[in-house]
Amino acid sequence: MILHRRLCVWAVTLAIPCFLAGCSHVMVPNGGPPPPNTSPMILTIHDSNAPVGGVTVTSFEATIMDASLIPATGMPVPLVSASERIEFTQLQTNSAYLSTTPVTPGSYAGLTITYANPQYTIFNGTGASLTINGENCATGSECVISNPIVDNVTGTVTFSSPIIVQQNNQTLIEADVNLNNLIQNNFDVDFSKSIAATVSQATNGASTPIVQGIMMSGQVGTVTASSQQFQFTASTGQSFPITADSSTNFEFTAANCTANDFSCIATGQILDLSVNIFGDGKTFEAGEVDFDDDASTQQVNGQIVAMNANPPTSFTMVVHNTIPASTSLPVGSLATVTIGTSPSFVINNGSFVLPSSPVLSFGTTSDVIVGQEVEARVASGTTISNGAFTTDRLALEQTQLQATATNVSATAQPPNPSYALSSSSAVSPLPSLFVDNPLGTVKQIQVLTITQGSTTLTVFQELSPNSMSGITGTTVVATGGFLFNTPAVGSPTIVATVVRGET
Fold first, then answer.
1. pLDDT tens per residue, range 232-280
2. Do 151 and 110 share a domain, yes or no?
3. Are both 141 and 73 inside the same structural domain?
4. Residue 287 and residue 191: Cα distance in Å, rounded?
5. Are 57 and 164 part of one and the same domain?
6. Whole-model pTM?
7. How far apart are CA 61 and CA 57, in angstroms?
8. Domain end marker among 182, 203, 224
9. SS3 165
10. Reduced to 3 states, what is the DSSP secondary structure of residue 225?
11. So what's the pLDDT on residue 6?
C-alpha cells in the first residue's frame, strides 16, 4: 500500500506560488503588486502509489490545513491561507498548484505541513479479512476507510541545505508525500513520517514559466476573447485565470469546432488543460487545451476496481473527481456504473500520438478492464442515484501506478523502448488490484514508451539520466499512461506519457 506523493514550492523574490495535489490558493491577489522586498515562492505536491502486502490504495484524501516555511531564525511563514482538500493518488506523475506567497529574502531551513480528516480507499488482496478502526474489509473487496486512526497530523522536512531566498530569484519546493510511510502496518495514518522535499531555484523573472505541464481538468467560466483569457474551475474546486497565446495548442475536432483555436472555448465546456505557471506566481498559461465535452453534461472520473463480467455490462469505480462537482459521489467513494445501450468510446490523449497498432484499441466493452482510469459520462436524461448511474460514453484516461521496472528493452518490438511491471518483483511489485482480480489474474503489464518519431514523446523525470537509459531491472518507477487490454500480446499494455523515478 505504498503511496508516494510530491509537493513543490517555488520561491521568487516577489511572491511564492504553491503547488499541491488537488489544492491551490493564491495569497497575492491577481493583478496586485507583491509587497516590497519580497520574493515569490511556488509550492507543489506530488504522489506515487505502489502496493505492499497485498493492499492497493486506490484513493487517499486529506485536507491541508497549513503549510509553513521554517526560517533559520524567527517565526514560520504561512504558505497557504485557506484549507484545501487533496486527492493524492492522481499525482504520481503530476504535481498540483497550491499558492503564491510573498516571502522575505533570507535563509529557510524546512517545511511543515499540517493535515486533517484523512480518508482512504483500498483493495484488499491479502487473502484475509481486515478490520481497520472498527471497519471491516473482506478479502478481494474494495473498502472505504472513512475514519482511520491518526497518530500525528503534522509532517516536517528539513532541507538538506538551507534555502537562500534572494530579492531577484524564484524558488520551487517540491514536497513528496510517501503514503507507504504515511499509512502504517496497522493502517493508522501518521503524517509525521510521510514527507520529503526537493528545492530548485532560478532567476528567470516574472515573464518566464517556472513550472510547466501541470495537468488540470475542469469547467470553463467567463471567457474574455479580447485578451484570450478564461476563468477555469478545476475538478479540485480551485479557480484559475487561464491565458492562451500563439504557442497554445488547441485540440478541438471538426465535430465540435472546426476553427480549432481560442474562439472554440465557451462557458460551461469541460476541458483538459496543460498549464504553465510564470515567475510572478499569478500568470497561468495554457500550453494545451483539449476539448472534453459540452456544458450541461456530468462527468465522473475514477479507476475501475471491479467488473460484473468480462466483457462487462457494469463495473465499480473508485471516484477521483467529478465535473462539475457532485455531492452524490464524493471523492474516494465507490460508484456502480451501468454501461448503457450503444455507448460511445473515446481516448482522451489530446496531442499525445498513440502508436498505430490494432491491439491498442478502446472501442467496445471488450476493451474495458480492471485498473483502467476512465471518465464516465452520466447518460443524458438520467441522474446519479444512491451511488449508481448509467453511462452513455466512456473515455480512457491515464492510469497511474508505481512498481519495479523489469525486462527493460531499449529496442523492443514493436519498435518502442519498453519495460514490464511484474507481480514477481521483490520490491514494489505490481499492485494487488491487478494480481488478485477475480476475473483473471494479471501478473505483468507491458509498458511502451515513445522516444522518437512523434511530436509528443514520453517524458522521463527523476531518473539518471532522464531517458530509458535511466531505467534498469531494479528501478522503481511511477508510470502514467493509457492502459489497454491487449490479450494478443499476453498481458495488458500501458503506453506511457510520463515515467518518473522514485524520489
1. 999 988 899 999 999 999 999 888 899 999 999 999 999 999 999 887 7
2. yes
3. yes
4. 34
5. yes
6. 0.89
7. 11
8. 203
9. strand
10. helix
11. 38
pLDDT digits (tens, 9 = 90+) for 467-488: 898 998 889 999 999 999 999 9
Among candidate residues 205, 18, 204, 207, the one with its CA nearest the CA of residue 101: 18
- Name the domain boundary from 249, 275, 293: 293
R_g (Cα) of the chain, nearest Å: 22
Characterize the bridge pairing of strands 476-484 and 399-409: antiparallel
164 forms bridges with which residues in the sheet?
A: 107
Q: How many CA atoms lie within 13 A of 120 on its CB side?
A: 28
Comparing CA positions, the residue from 2, 108, 14 lying closest to residue 48 is 2
Running DSSP on this structure, what letter comes out for residue 181?
H
Nearest to 39 by CA among 15, 18, 19: 15
Residues contacting 111, CB < 8 A, separation 6+ = 9, 43, 67, 68, 69, 70, 156, 157, 159, 173, 175, 195, 197
Number of domains in the chain: 4
Q: What angle do CA 320, 324, 325 make, to 5 degrees?
A: 55
Taking a C-beta distance cutoff of 8 angstroms, is the pair 210, 9 a contact? no
275 and 392 assigned to the same domain:
no
* pLDDT: which is higher, 44 or 104: 104
SS3 323: strand
- pLDDT > 70: what percent of the chain? 88
Q: How many other CB atoms are there within 10 angstroms of residue 441's CB atom? A: 10
Burial 215-247 (b: 16+ CB within 10 A, else e): bbbbbbeebeeeebbbebbbbbebebbbbbeee
**Same domain (yes/no): 197, 264:** no
Q: Residue 86's closest CA among 3, 201, 197?
A: 3
Question: Which amino acid is residue 13, in one-letter code?
Answer: T
Does 433 lie in the same domain as 468? yes
Both 280 and 310 in one domain: the answer is no
The answer on 404 and 265 residing in a single domain is no
Cα–Cα nearest to 17, from 80, 82, 86: 80
C-alpha cell at 290: 483539449
Question: What are the tens digits of pLDDT across the range 155-187?
Answer: 998 888 898 888 777 777 778 887 777 888 889
Partners of 299 in the beta sheet? 323, 377
Domain of residue 265 covers: 210-293
Contacts of 381 (CB under 8 A, 6+ apart): none
Which residue matches cell numbers 528539513? 158
For the chain, the average pLDDT equals 86
Name beta bridge partners: 85. 63
